[in-house]
Write a structure and sequence with these properties.
The complex is a heterotrimer. Chain A has helices at residues 43-50, 80-86, 102-112, 118-131, 135-138, 151-164, 181-194, 207-213, 237-242, 247-253; strands at 5-14, 17-27, 32-36, 60-68, 71-72, 87-90, 169-173, 199-203, 216-221, 230-236. Chain A is an alpha/beta fold. In chain A, the strands form 2 sheets. Chain A has a 6-stranded mixed beta sheet, sandwiched between helices. In chain A, strands 2-1-4-5 form a 4-stranded antiparallel beta sheet, with helices on one face. In chain A, helix 3 crosses helix 4. The longest helix of chain A has 14 residues, at 118-131. The relative contact order of chain A is 0.19. The radius of gyration of chain B is 30 Å and the shape is flat. Chain C is mainly alpha-helical. Chain C has a domain at 116-360: MetI-like fold, CATH 1.10.3720. Chain C contains 14 helices and 2 strands; from the N terminus they run ααααββαααααααααα. The chains are: A alpha/beta, B mainly alpha, C mainly alpha. Chains in contact: A-B, A-C, B-C.
């Protein structure tokens, strides 16, 4: 159920500002791909353009082509909601719906898709929570508000909510940046398990994290503030971190810049 | 884990195989709208049950129904709901704009009729039913004095009260103050008027007044104070709570005593927000008619002394002219209403502009 | 009677709601209040040296200032108490002089040698007109608020939102004047039409004349509270965390589904507060109704025939000719009005607090 993603010359704008330019890369199914680079280099913008969340912001638009198993998601007659159902997203800060219980949070996506039957929802919720390694912690308080959990639990709840609709790709936008080291470890373990089923793309500022969890790494950078972000190097993680072919990547990885 | 997944493989939601969706062609909604109006006109005029207004209403309902059906058939239920709600929300907007625009238009066009120097420079003293002149000078004086006095009473009292609640108050007493300020926000303006009537006009002031009830501008100011006080307390309270703790702690760490910290650090930081709250309270008080009607007594002549004899106010003037039989009265009422709205809006706009520059606000 | 929409919807009903939980933590100021530093004075020879710390002064500026604020706080309580005491003191003699049942008698003749007056019809008219006004205004107001916050282009939304805020500040006497002079005609036509085709429903029965009716009063009230409710609920909708809206969209929600999953539940306490503030306004509204209703003193569900009355409008109308007992009777009716608005406010707060568990942690 995981799918291959091919980006070709993707350029994204915020109004008149060009945030990324001519990004081309291919993500293989059932892998974890890390997007790294200095702040403002457009990794999050690129990530958000993969499930068309970029255009939610007023004035934002995307050019170029992004195909998922040979379907261009930016074609005119494509249903945006179908794209987002196929490509789930986990955000930087845990964002469970504050007015909903843990259970309601997990099944929110299913309910949107018209699933009403209690037994199906319950099974799906358990499955998603188990996959997110959260089931044992919350199984006795599914009716309590999701916002009452700890930060790490909330983020795993959000992951459960995302995978409950069984997407094929999961995008993660710095999912651990608001979490403590132990919760971060839990999420990293989780990514390792999830890669059996999903294609995962993760934006991270933490290079150890990129090195630990990802199979492939893409390094983004900008010349100077105001310039669009570009893809500098894209290769196997091991290669990027041991023997990068571009000088700039090496500088960044060794901490000489960024 | 993967085993669990496979056993439930037949479960929904089925992921879409294709991302493409059928969409209603662009021309469909306008075409539907046109058809709805035509059908509505046929029904309404055919049955002879109404005029153009009914055609629009029936047409709108038909359009909503038709849009839902069409979208449901082509795009599916979710998209149909989305479209229908979107149409409903847009029509709510149109529906509300009509009467509100009518109010504004009437106010401007009717209010302009008597917008002359005479209106602002004369009172209604010795103006009979057949006199086209007469103005609101006395009412403007009354409004300014009453609102001014009310502000002088409310602002120090309200701000000090809020400081007590936020900075010093603890336990049941502060809670009681907060609770009763909340209760006070719910007092209808006419009840505030009745209170001042019972308390000041009928019981206290007759003592200084040879036993006659003392209707006066000051009584109106008291009533307006009762209405303004909770607003001022609450907005000040909220602004004080927004002052960042490090600011106070910094002052305490320098050994500045608490009262000085409050006066020199906390209040100045919160000031723009407090001023905004006060101005909005003033704007609201200036527009109040009911309490003034009960305790100021009205009156046609100019009275600069708010403590003695009847006084009018702009809002009261509008109400009295509205009830006047003279054929010149409506024009006076509308012009006074326009003046009042201008006054209130200037205060409101100024308050909002100030709020926008507020460092503490959002 | 909070008027400033930027303070969100809790103005009218008081009470903690969503907004407060996102403000500065209340604990911050409390902690500061307990700081012992407050009683120390920095001056004196001990400063910077190794000498003993100066002792706290028993009477000083600190005490005086604290006493001043305490006095202000007490004054507010005194005002509240005074309102209750004086209103009751003036109302009781009139109620004693009443020769009919205050709750059930349909009529208002307190100035007669044998005073007869009853609140029933007035209270009924007050509640009826306000409820109809709210039923008409709330859906439209929420629709506009959603339009301004989530459908209109941002610049349009901001501009129109500002205009709505201004309309919310327009004094009620203006709406009353407009309703009487320009809106009664169309409403009379509508009433005649309703009477002709739906006359079999008691609400729209009767033989006329139509126009100065509960329907007109309720419509004017609705138009008057519309900007107030819109302005407050727009603020509430705008405060929905973007993160939650994006979460809904990322799950594949349409715009309406996003509003239903993220915006409406989050804003519910605020909406309730806004509606209750509008209801409070409508219940207490005096002048707009005094100008538009055709005064009668009976309980009737007929909405379109001339007539109808409310407590507040009756006070404004009957005040001029009232003698001492008459004033007492009006004050008694004012107490009933206050009780009604109080019940509304307390109910609102109960509704807001009921789901507190879920809104408290909304950060």
């Amino acid at each position: 159920m995981a799918k291959r993603i091919e980006a070709e010359n993707v350029t994204a704008y915020y109004g008149g500002f060009k945030a990324i330019e001519n990004i081309s890369l291919t993500v293989e199914p059932k892998t974890v791909t890390a997007l790294i680079g200095p702040s403002g280099c457009g990794k999050s913008t690129f990530l958000r353009s993969i499930n068309r969340m970029h255009e939610v912001l007023p004035g934002a638009r995307v050019e170029g082509s992004l195909t998922i198993d040979d379907q261009d998601i930016y074609q005119r007659d494509v249903d945006v909601t179908a794209v987002r159902r196929m490509i789930g997203m986990v955000f930087q800060r845990p964002n469970p719906f504050p007015t909903m219980s843990i259970f309601d949070n997990v099944v929110a996506g299913l309910r949107l898709n018209g699933v009403r039957k209690k037994s199906i929802l319950e099974e799906a919720a358990e499955r998603a929570l188990r996959s997110a390694n959260l089931w044992d912690e919350v199984k006795d308080r599914l009716g309590k508000p999701g916002a009452g959990l700890s930060g790490g639990q909330q983020q795993r709840l959000c992951i459960a909510r995302t995978i409950a609709v069984e997407p094929q790709v999961v995008l993660m936008d710095e999912p651990c940046s608001a979490l403590d080291p132990i919760s971060t470890l839990a999420i990293e373990d989780l990514m390792f398990q999830l890669k059996d089923k999903f294609t995962i793309i993760i934006v991270t500022h933490n290079m150890q994290q990129a090195a630990r969890v990802s199979d492939r790494t893409a390094f983004f950078s900008i010349e100077k503030t105001g310039d669009p972000g570009r893809l500098i190097e894209y290769d196997n993680t091991q290669k990027i971190f041991s023997n990068p072919s571009v000088k700039k990547t090496e500088d960044y990885i060794t901490g000489r810049f960024g | 884990m993967s085993a669990t997944v496979t056993t439930h493989r037949q479960q929904p939601p089925a992921q879409p195989v294709t991302l493409r969706a059928k969409r209603l062609p662009r021309y469909v909604p306008p075409a539907l709208a046109l058809a709805a109006v035509v059908v509505a006109a046929a029904i309404v005029y055919g049955a002879g049950i109404g005029g153009p207004v009914l055609v629009v209403v029936v047409g709108a309902l038909l359009y909503l129904g038709g849009l839902f059906a069409a979208a449901n058939a082509v795009e599916g239920r979710r998209s149909a709901r989305d479209r229908t709600w979107s149409a409903l929300i847009h029509s709510a907007f149109v529906l509300a704009v009509l009467p509100l625009a009518s109010v504004v238009w009437t106010l401007l066009s009717k209010g302009a009729e008597r917008l002359d120097g005479n209106f602002f420079l004369t009172s209604m003293n010795n103006i009979g039913a057949r006199d086209p002149e007469g103005g609101a000078y006395h009412a403007i004086v009354g409004t300014l004095q009453q609102v001014g006095i009310a502000t002088l009473i409310t602002v120090p009292l309200g701000i000090l009260c809020a400081i007590y609640v936020v900075e010093y108050g603890r336990g049941k007493f502060a809670f009681a103050i907060r609770f009763f300020v909340d209760v006070m926000t719910g007092i209808p303006s006419i009840v505030a008027g009745l209170f001042v009537l019972a308390f000041w006009v009928l019981i206290v002031s007759p003592v200084f007044n040879d036993g006659r009830p003392g209707f006066s501008g000051f009584a109106a100011a008291l009533a307006l104070s009762v209405l303004m006080l909770p607003t001022v307390v609450r907005s000040t309270e909220e602004m004080l709570r927004l002052v960042p703790a490090p600011l106070r702690e910094g002052a305490y760490a320098l050994g500045v005593p608490k009262w000085k910290t409050i006066l020199r650090v906390v209040l100045p930081t919160a000031l723009p927000g407090i001023v905004t709250g006060v101005m909005l309270a003033i704007a609201r008080a200036a527009g109040e008619t009911a309490p003034v009607l009960l305790v100021a007594g009205g009156g046609a002549a100019i009275n600069f002394n708010p403590f003695e004899n009847n006084q009018s106010s702009l809002a009261l003037f509008v109400y009295q002219q509205a009830g006047d039989a003279s054929r010149y009265a409506p024009a006076r009422a509308w012009t006074a209403a326009l003046t009042l709205v201008a006054l209130v809006l200037i205060l409101t706009i100024a308050a909002k502009l100030l709020a926008r520059r507020n460092r503490l606000g959002r | 009677m909070g008027e400033s929409p930027h303070r969100s919807a809790n103005a009218g009903t008081g009470g903690t709601n969503v907004t407060e939980s996102r403000e500065w933590p209340a604990g911050a100021s409390a902690r500061v209040a307990e700081a012992p530093v407050s009683t120390r004075t920095p001056e004196g020879p001990g400063l910077g040296g190794g000498g003993a710390l100066p002792r706290a002064r028993a009477f000083g500026a600190e005490r005086a200032f604290r006493g001043l604020t305490l006095a202000a706080g007490t004054a507010v309580l005194v005002v509240i108490a005074a309102i209750a005491v004086f209103l009751v003191a003036k109302a009781l003699p009139a109620l004693r002089a009443n020769t009919e049942n205050f709750w059930t008698f349909e009529g208002w003749f307190p100035n007669d040698p044998e005073p007869k007056f009853g609140i029933g019809a007035l209270a009924f008219g007050t509640v009826l007109s306000s409820v109809i006004a709210l039923l008409l205004a709330v859906p439209v107001a929420l629709g506009i608020a959603l339009y301004l916050s989530h459908y209109a282009p941002r610049r349009v939304g901001t501009t129109l939102g500002f205009l709505i805020d201004l309309l919310a500040a327009v004094p009620s006497v203006v709406f009353g004047l407009w309703g009487r002079d320009y809106f009664s005609g169309p409403v009379a036509d509508l009433s005649a039409w309703l009477n002709r085709y739906f006359g079999w429903i008691p609400l729209f029965g009767g033989d006329g004349p139509f126009g100065a009716s509960i329907l007109l009063g309720a419509l004017v009230l609705a138009i008057m509270v519309l900007p107030i409710i819109t302005s407050l609920s727009r603020e509430v909708f705008l405060q929905t965390p973007t993160a939650n809206e994006e979460a809904a969209l990322a799950l594949g929600a349409t715009r309406w589904e996003m509003i239903r999953t993220a915006v409406l539940p989050y804003g519910r306490p605020g909406i309730v507060a806004a509606v209750m503030l509008g209801l409070g306004r409508a219940l207490g509204e005096t002048i707009a109704l005094a100008l538009t209703l055709g005064i009668t003193f009976g309980i009737s569900v007929n909405l379109i025939e001339n007539g109808g009355n409310t407590i507040a409008a009756n006070i404004a109308n009957a005040f001029g000719e009232a003698n001492d007992t008459g004033r007492g009777a009006l004050i008694a009716s004012g107490l009933v009005l206050f009780a009604i608005t109080l019940i509304v406010n307390i109910t609102a707060r109960a509704i807001i607090h009921r789901r507190r568990e879920f809104t408290e942690s909304a950060a």
